[in-house]
Request: fold
Amino acid sequence: CPPAASSGHPTQSRQSCSRVFISSWRFNKKSGPPSHSCPFQQRFCAFRWAAPDGLERLGDGPYEPRTTNHYYYHRRIFMAELLAPAGSLENVLTAIDAGADAVYFGGKGFNARKFAHNLDDAEIGQAVRTAHLFGVKVYVTVNILMADTELEALSAYLQLLDSFGVDGIIVQDLAVAALARKVAPNLPLHGSTQMTVADLDGVRFLEANGFTQAVLSRELSAQEIRFIASQSSIPIEVFIHGASCMAYSGQCLMSSFLGGRSGNRGACAQPCRQPYTLLCDGQPVMKHEAYVL
Reply:
C-alpha cells in the first residue's frame, strides 16, 4: 500500500496509507501517480493523475468535512457528483470501493425506509469516518413528516449527526429544517425529492430558507432539469437509477389509505408494485393479473 520509493514521492507507513489521496504529492501526466496496491487509493490517485494541470499541495491534514478540499474541488470540475444509496455499513464500503463520490443512508429512525436495515448511531459514526478518509461525502436521510411528540428526540439526533460531521441531511419536512438551523446550524440541508421541487421557483424557495442543495422532482424532463440547473445558485441533484413511486415524487397516500402504513412516515407497503386485476363495469379487462400501476 505505501507508494514505491522509486516514484520520487515520500514513502508513507501503512498506518497513514489511508490518507494517500490527500497527502502532499503533486504529480502530472509525465510523472504519473505513485504505484501501490491499495484499490481505494489507486482510484483516487489515478483521477488526480488525469487532472490536466496537476494538483497543488494543500497540506497533510485529515479530510475536512463540509469544505471544498482540493480533491473534491478538482473532481467536481470533470464530472457530476455520483451519489449512491447505502442501506448498511457494508454497502457504504462497497459504494466507496465502486467509485461513489458520496453515499446516503438512513439511521434507525426518522427516515423514509423504516423497515430497511439502516445504520445505528455507532455505524453512522464509523461510516462517516471511513468515507471521509477516502474523500467521499455522507448524507443522512431525515425525510419523514414529523410529529410534535418526536421533536425532542429529533433535536438530539440532529446534534448527534452534526457531531459526527455528516456532510448534509436530506429532509422533507420544513419543521425539520427549522429545527436543524436552531440546534445544529452548521448542518447542511438538502431538500428531498419528496418536497416536490419541480421548478426554479421551488429551488429558490429552498435556498432562501437555508438549504444548500435541492433534489428535483423525479417527473421532470431532461430539458427542464437542464434549465433549472443552469439558473440555480445551489447544487441540483436528480435521480438517475432505481425504483420510482407511481405517485408524484413519492407524495403517495395509497399505502396509508389501504393499510394504515404511511409512505410519508417511512412505512410504505408499496401497494403500487403489486399485481392487480383491471375491471371495467365490473368485468375484467385482462385475463390475468398484471402490474397495471
Summary: Residues 151-164 form the longest helix (14 residues). The CA atoms of residues 21 and 44 lie 6 Å apart. Confidence is low (pLDDT under 50) at residues 1-65, 67-78.
